[in-house]
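MODEL INPUT / OUTPUT PAIR
PAIR INDEX: 1
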Amino acid sequence: MTGQHSESRLDRLPMALINEIEPAPVDQVLDEDHLLAPAGVPGWRPEKGPARIRSSWRGSDGALVPGALDQASVIIRTDAGRLVDGRDYTIDPFWGSLERSTAGGSEVAAGPARVRLSYRWSRRRVDSVSQDRDGRWHVWQGAEHLAAPTPPELPEHQRRVANVFVDHFARTGRILYCDRSRPRRHLDQRERLARVRTKISSGRPVRIVCWGDSVTAGGDASSPAAAFPALLGRRLGEAWGEDRVELHTVAVDGSSTSDWLDPGTAAAAGLRGSAPLPADLDAVLGLEPDLVISEFVNDAWLAADVRQRNHERLLELFRTIGADWMITTPHFTAGAWMGTARLDAPDGRPLTRFLRAFASRHRLALADVSRRWEALYDDGLPYPTLLNNGVNHPDDRGHALAADVITAALGVVPHSLGEPA
């Protein structure tokens, strides 16, 4: 198993080196001005949480980062005195967001309340252990980041042996050896892409639609050019010729396949409990694509029968217009949503298992992005650090991994199959 080799090789690192790893950075904030939100606002919303645990995306506040807040340290005051947890406010155990309590008996006036907020918060770090050409060991400290730290760059002639993940509030780090001895599988799927093969062999342009949710829309890539659809378009243009690639992105934040097939229904609205999203499947079909590449990590929240029915309907629709369909498996998300806190665990999500089986049964092209995220452990990279918002939005590295796997599935050798940092 992937997770067993590190434990058997801990003796490779002198314990004196591990003792040099510093605890996670922790800071305290006193009397931060905060508007206590009424109940009912989604827990991830940045305005609901302390300012220091809000992720940042292109200069704006993003989702709250789970685990970055010491919830036991939270103290909320007004001019009338200290508020009481449970009576006056509640803290979301996952997000760390704050809202007015609905329990009754609060002494705070109804509606949003201006309060003063004190709390402890923490950041993550990835340190590295290396050996030089003379066999001497060295420890290098990485830069702190609220959610997505990167390993430090090493001087020339230093061989990175392991990275050490120091999570929020952790006093010790978790060792991940940089081991690329296991083979990487990036399967060429062109035999399942008849229309794409015909277009390429005849020298005609291939029209591709990247279709999906907020990840396909580019969240949390540092720029539109760093999102996986843009990377894919550039790489295919270099391989096939820019005049032979026509790539479109059709994506809506927060959407699942139900939002596109049955907008306004319980299956769609149940994902968010909110108004229908502007998801119009005609925006995909009307482009008359040769290839549709779908990405819906949000389908993880759909019931199994709804997920099955949606994909059967989509298969019929795409076959009707003669389009090839490439399904991508979802990238990893926060451990609570993966169902395990282990960094080395294989993807056991029902959505991933379903997509692999559905693609196999119907001989559809599969870009198995999840497999690449599984392999991050052997690269010495803790996968949560590739989530810029700490939950479900990959950073530039995560988008590049998706582009790697998709280009490989299209028979194009990726630029980097995710070489270890």
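PAIR INDEX: 2
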Amino acid sequence: MTFGGTARPHRSPSPLPHRNLKQEFTERQGLRQRPGPDDAIHLAGLGFVGTHHRGVDDARNIAQLLPWILGDEQIDPRRVTAWEREVKLRQRR
């Protein structure tokens, strides 16, 4: 969300470095394109929990994906192939 038409990153002190979990998911799973949250959850064989863009629900959904981002879980290659075909079809529309 932005106020006054300007967007700036929040500058709150944190002892932890920033991590781009979308990028890490994409790289860890060997995907050619970066999936959005809905697609990532579907690729992992999970179901979306709650309401999109509601902070606590988004956090729960990201937490569901952590084994595929930081752990050893791998997406079924058949899901990846089907998703990549679907993405190509979406791009043609």
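PAIR 2 NOTE: The mean pLDDT is 88.
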